[in-house]
Amino acid sequence: MLHIGCHLSSGAGFLSMGETALSIGADTFQFFTRNPRGSKAKAIDVEDAKALMHLIKEHRFPCILAHAPYTLNPCSAAEKTREFAYLTMEDDLKRMEYTPGQMYNFHPGSHTGQGAETGIEEIAALLNALLKTEQTTTVLLETMSGKGSEVGRNFEELAAILEKVHLQEKMGICLDTCHIWDAGYDIVNDLDGVIEHFDRVIGLPRLKAIHLNDSLNGRGSHKDRHACIGAGQIGLEALTKVINHPELKHLPFFLETPNDLDGYKREIALLRSLYEG
After folding, report:
1. Phi, psi of 104 (to 5 degrees)
2. Contact call for residues 138 and 103 (beta carbons, < 8 A)
3. In the prediction, which pLDDT does 115 show?
4. What's the distance, Cα to Cα, between the start and end of the chain in Å?
5. How far apart are CA 74 and CA 109, in angstroms?
6. Strand partners, 254
7. Confidence class of residue 12 from pLDDT cuts 50, 70 and 90?
8. How open is the CA angle 217-147-90, to the nearest 5 degrees?
9. pLDDT greater than 90 at residue 245
10. pTM as predicted
């Protein structure tokens, strides 16, 4: 079965997101934990969270994926920025326990001139300060396109972070198809080779989720410009191979394409029709 969803607005609450996902043919969804360009977080409605957990069980959602706000930069040269990242993620992980057993994804950040090695050290230090043995949430590092001074521009940098994390069982990777294409990985002509490279460097058991996106730009552009499925430089044929690859097809897929709900509904229906279950 293809487990697929899209990014939904969290403004109406947990249960509403679950119901919206079902209405467009999805069986999972992604949401921001708080304002993606700010710091404010809506108070948790405990009963609403319980209602979502009931819906997840009833409709056999594999999981849901929370996304940290874009404002986080745990490897900034500015101490105040790193502190903001710590406090926000600490609060997010506490809030995630109202919907236990889910996943939380974040962008590793930008080293802002310090160098990737220092950035990697800062990110790992943050994770070692945050992760708790009792937490039920799996924290995911997202693959990045490599624009500017981003850390996570290749599998080796992500592996270097993971190697320094003490509670590795709490960690995983979210692979973004647009990002790795823009970073230079040829998932159009050599998907098997890219997956083998990921397995060799990071290990496929670490791969927990996929952001399924087309790209407006060519391979290696380092631009990070998402496109609708089949409307970009990756193309429908290649993305169909992604959802049907034997090492990937069991994972949850999350669309972050530039769409409204009707557009997501069409993309989900299209991908379900192309899935070779």
Report:
1. -130, 120
2. yes
3. 92
4. 6
5. 6
6. 5, 211
7. confident
8. 120
9. yes
10. 0.96
